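Progress report, Aim 2. The chain analyzed during this reporting quarter is listed below.
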Amino acid sequence: MPLLTEAAKGVYVIAVTPFLENGDVDWTSVDRMVDFYEEKGVTGLTILGQLGEAPKLTSEESKEIARRVIARAKVPVVVGVTAPGLAPMRELADSVMEMGAAGVMVAPPWTTKTDDQAYGFYASVGDALGKTPWVLQDYPLTTNVTIAPKVIDRIIKDVPTCVMLKHEDWPGLSKITALRASSEKGETRRISILCGNGGLFLPEEMARGADGAMTGFCYPEMMVGVVENYAKGDIDRAHDIFDAYLPLARYEQQQGIGLASRKYVLAKRGVISSGALRKPGASLSKLDIIDVERLLARQAKRLAEIGA
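Predicted C-alpha cells for the chain:
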C-alpha cells in the first residue's frame, strides 16, 4: 500500500472497534466493518483513534486489530500510535508500518503547555519515527493542548515526515485559513488537512481549503458525498447532503453517549454485531434510543426528498 503523502485527500474514516457483549474484540465484525467503509466510498481508514477506544485495548489487541484491518483493506490505513513515551510509540509505529500501514497519527501529551514544548515534542516525534510519514492530531477539546498556526508552520518547515494535519480545533476555521495562507505564500510546504469533529463543519472546512475529512460518523457516505461534490464544484449539492445528516451528526457529538449512538446505528445497519462499548463506557437509555430512531426516520425522509 502506498505511503501517506502531503497530497492525501478525501475521507479517511475513523473506524470504531467492534466488541462483543462480553467485551471481547469482535473479529468477524472488524472484517465486515472494513468492507462496509470501502463500499461507502471512503478513501482510507484510520484505526486506533480516540473513538476507536484505543486506550481500552491491550498492546497485543492493538497490533492484532492493525494487522487484521491492514490485511483486509484495499485502501490506505493510518494507525493511531499516541503513547505516553516515544519508545512505545516507535515500537507500535514500526510494527504497523511493517504490516503495510500508510502512516501513523500522533496527538500531543496533555503536559504540553507552551509553543516551544509543542514544537519540541513533534520535532522529537519526527526523530523517533524516522522515515515513517505521520499525522499531527490537533484536538484541543480532548488533549487540552492548543497548537497555534505559527507552531504548526514551524513543525511543517522543520519536520518533513509530517505530511498531514488532522484538524479538530473548535472553533478552527481561521486556523485552516492561516495555514493555507502560509503555503500559498511559499512560506511552508502545503500539507494535507483532513478535518474531524464528526464532520460538523465539513462544508465550511472544505471552503477554507481542507482536503477532506478524517473523522467518524455512522453514515460515512455523508462525508464522502460532501467532499466529492465540493471537489467537483457542486457546492449546493454538498450542503444539501450535509444538511440532511446534520441532526444525527450533531447528536453523535455528545460527550459520553455519542459513540454509543454511533455504534447503535452501525449495529442497526448490520455493520457490527453489537453496539457495545468496552467498559468503562456509556450505553443508551430507552429515551436515547427513541431520540436516535426519530432522527433516523427524519433523515430518511429528507434524503428521499433530495434524492440522495
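The chain has one domain: 10-233. The longest strand covers residues 162-167. These observations will guide the mutagenesis work planned for the next reporting period.
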